[in-house]
Amino acid sequence: MDPRYVLLLSAVLFSLGVVGVLLRRGAITILMCIELMLNAGNLAFVTFARQAGTAEAQVYVFFVMTLAAAEAAVGLAITIALFRLRESTDIDQIRLLKW
Amino acid sequence: MLSKIWLIPMLPLLGAAINGLVGPKLSKRAVGFVACGIVLLAFLLSATAVFELSGLPSEERHVTTEIGTWLPLGEVGAKAQNLEVSWGFTLDPLSSVMILIVTGVGFLIHVYATGYMAHEEGFSRFFTYLNLFLAMMLTLVLGSSLLVMFVGWEGVGLCSYLLIGFFYDRPFDERTGMSCADAGRKAFVVNRIGDFAFLIGVLYLATTFGTVEFRGITEGILAGGGSHALLVGVGLLLFLGACGKSAQIPLYVWLPDAMAGPTPVSALIHAATMVTAGVYMVTRMSGLYTAAPEAMAVVAAVGALTAIFAATMGIVATDIKKVLAYSTVSQLGYMFAGAGVGAFGAAIFHLMTHAFFKALLFLGAGSVIHGLDGEQDIRKMGGLKARMPVTYRTMWVATWAIAGIIPFAGFFSKDEILWGAFSSGNKVVWAVLLAGAGTTAFYMFRLLHLVFDGKERSHAHAHESPKSMTMPLQVLAVLSVVGGWIGIPAALTFGANLNFLGSWLEPSIVHAGREAAHEAHASLALEWGLMALALLVAGGGILLARSMYKDREGIAEAWARRFGPLYTMVRNYYWVDELYELVVLRPFYAACRVSRAFDVYVVDGLVNGARHVTIGTSHLSHANDRWIVDGLVNLVGAVVGASAALLRRLQTGVVQSYAAAMVFGIFVLLVLYSLAR
Q: Which of B187, B141, B148 is nearest to B164 (CA)?
């Protein structure tokens, strides 16, 4: 199977994640889009590992999954705290850090 | 007692200190008692000292005591002599005569003043000055050196100034608009001119002879020290000082205005004592003057000129005190003329008799003024003979005395001066003085007739003065009669020497031997003739005054009209004050204005210019600081602030826009990365 298709899929997934992060309002959705971008990366790692026939890149994937789990934990915690404070997860309304 | 003569000037000084410090708290009675008592004490002390002095042989009659060093000047002059001036007081026949006059007449006038000043403000101040004056006058006559004399010389000038201006808030002269304070100032300033010359003369003597002691200087001159020109110059300088103090031409102008002072002051200072200081000084320096005949000739000429010049002004003056003031100037001229022709003894003799009768005249005038409530114009007086009998009688005696009629005191002293002038060959001086004698008799009897004879022209209720004032008058009247009897010339006593004063003064008077002595060759008949002539001239003056002023009004006015311009000139005192104003004061004031203008415009201009330059520069510096230095700093701040205002808009707080920027940046980096490959 031609790895370029897989890499193209990875790029499409990553781009979808980016667009989601930039455009969506809900904090949960944004977190999910971040997961998507991370996993697009994972897919690229796995593809290159398969093509090169080595295992190092696959190890990186585990690291990324660990990171993603931690990120999701922290991100969700913030979101919940935010919701308790504001009764909303709309990212547009969270703009205290400005001039 | 002779070693304690320094006590004589100290006593009045003590009196001045007492009255000056606690006088205002004492009663008038106590002030008068202290002032008079202390002067009486000084008089008794003087009399004792003089009595002791007379007990000594005549060549030892020169006692000096020193009570300490005053000026250790070190080496002085071209020859670098060691000059040390000490507070030395000398009693010799000359100073003994002076201290007796000063303390004796001074005491009488003090007593008189207690009555005269009884109703005036500043009673204790008056007696403080009066006592201080006596202290200074006694220092002057007792001083053993020129510098100690100069202390007294300046001191009496100061007291004169203080006492002339005693009524400092009262106007004095309507003609010139002068106040009493102005008169005092005038006296002081005119005296300064003479004092300055005097001091220069003293310093010349100090550097030439290395001493300022009278005795040392006289010995130096007798030993031939000092060039002739120097002696003449110093003689003239000292005489200029005497001109100031003794009111001689050209410095006499202050004395008529000195009449602004209370009348006892006029009597004591401006008639009897202070103004005679110049005569005393010239006599004291007889060694110098006889060695410089040219200076002596000047003294004689100025004296004779002043005698006649002032006498003419006495004729027309209408203020009773001014008549007496011009008379004083005139009589002082006689004394200088006497000293100038070498008759020093006669000068001192006349000084003494003059002190008696002129003090009496002034005190009498004061009594008249007192009785008429301050009226001084003799044209408004008259007929006071009956109302003021004691004053009239005593003034009558004094007038005969000053007119020089035998046997009153003035005759002997004036005649001795006239004889001195004639016998020493100064015929012109003699003629002028003789004319002056006639004038004197005329104006004095004019005064007497106008004040005491005729009908009353005053509306004030004239009354006789209190006893404290009439007593001194009576004592002085007696002295004005008998005072001359201690100097009766040999011609009148058929050869017997009864000229006690002359022989008493002889040791004090030094003849340096360069002037001629004619006296021995004069014949008795000539002397008699001259005496008769002098009496005749004086008698003529008396008769003329009697015919013009006694009971016959209108004649004097007719005469004044006949000599219109001449009368006007003399009536305005020859415009001498105006002349001085024009010749001295105007240029002086002009010079003052010029130097003031220089000060204001040039000196102040420079200072102010420097100020303006400084202020201008600081304005520039301020502008530079404000607009350029501060401007740059503010510009930097403004630029930073403006760009911050712009840039901070980027910080929107919208997280997604940050993320978008980040993504955009990564995209740009990737593009650049791929292009660079």
A: B187
